[in-house]
Amino acid sequence: MSCVIVQQWVSVDGFLAGPAGERDVFAAVQDFSASEAHNMALLKSVDEVLLGRRTYESFAAFWPTAAGEPMARQVNALSKTVCSTTLTEAPWGSHAPARIVADAVEHVRSRREQRCRTIVWGSASVMRALFAAGEVDQLELFVAPVVLGDGTPLLERGDPPLPLRLRETETWPAGVVRIRYTT
């Protein structure tokens, strides 16, 4: 069965990043072992990761050479798609390059016919476009123990309401809470 999972790290007050960028959220977390273990299990059932251009550039600069990271082998082997209207190629170190598509919504709809399981990591613009089009099946939040007060919100003011049904919660070390919803 096809499924689109959006996974985001957020602050307690709902920001993906603070005024200084995403490091504001991650700086509050000292232990990522639980999220790594969770994602290693989750990635066994995922067919592709869908990224926006900025998230792709950040990930492509890190993961291909992150041999010591527990998730590196899985992340590098996974099929990747980048939503971008400016990139002409999307290399991934010595691994297979990412595929480039211009429209995330159109891409997800075409993959549903193939019963593809897609995970969207970060990539706020891709996430918002998929939410607006009704193409998200699950939202998984990793809530970091920090209040930022300002920054990049999960959703923009004026975005349509997003009814969610709580499926599970889990508390991890260092005060991180994982929350999974279905749409």
TrEMBL record:
The superkingdom listed in its UniProt entry is: Bacteria
What residue stretches are annotated with the Bacterial bifunctional deaminase-reductase C-terminal domain? Answer: 4-177
Concerning Gene3D superfamilies, the annotation shows: Dihydrofolate Reductase, subunit A
What this protein is called in its record is Dihydrofolate reductase family protein
